[in-house]
Amino acid sequence: MKIPVRPVALINKYYADSPRARQILLEHSRQVSRRALKIARNLKSTAQPDLQFIAEAAMLHDIGMIRTDTPELDCHGSGSYLQHGIEGRNILEKEGLERHALVCERHIGIGLTAKEIENQKLPLPKRDMLPVSLEEKIICYADLFYSKSEKNRGNEKSLEKVRKTLRKFGKEKLFVFDQWQKQFEPELK
């Protein structure tokens, strides 16, 4: 039997000095977690996703934002927001949560390849950071529908808005998203 992770306790530990950032993270993570769990429960597949892991990892996927310099989220670290995934991985590996840590690193956008990181000169390690497991893909997909920005916080993005955003990053990203959407939420139009 797996010992459950206590995501809120971990968030409280790392966000003790920033209650506003903590609240933003909790609201966003709860939205992502609800959608990811709904998808996982309704999935028509032979592969049965790990619901406990999805609940935990969806709550922790953005924990690294506290180490970024993102004042609008009340985060006053030193890294760029793009680095919140690897910062989250570092935090969760330190906590002994290697599988959860990979979700942090691999959820940025729809994932990043080492080639994209190198070509765009992104401030990230030059390695593939793509969702691999079914659970990682579900969380990454669900995250695309919610924003932490002041203007859009709490609101669910429409399918077309998500597609429009991803289109800016290339047809390959949009293709991956469309495949996930057909697999995870075929009822969305």
Automatic annotation (TrEMBL):
Q: Which residues form the HD domain?
A: 26-144
- Superkingdom as given in the UniProt entry: Bacteria
Q: Tell me one Pfam family matched here.
A: HD
Q: Which SUPFAM superfamilies match?
A: HD-domain/PDEase-like
Q: Which Gene3D superfamilies match?
A: Hypothetical protein af1432 (1.10.3210.10)
Q: What is this protein called?
A: HD domain-containing protein
Q: Which organism is it from?
A: Malonomonas rubra DSM 5091
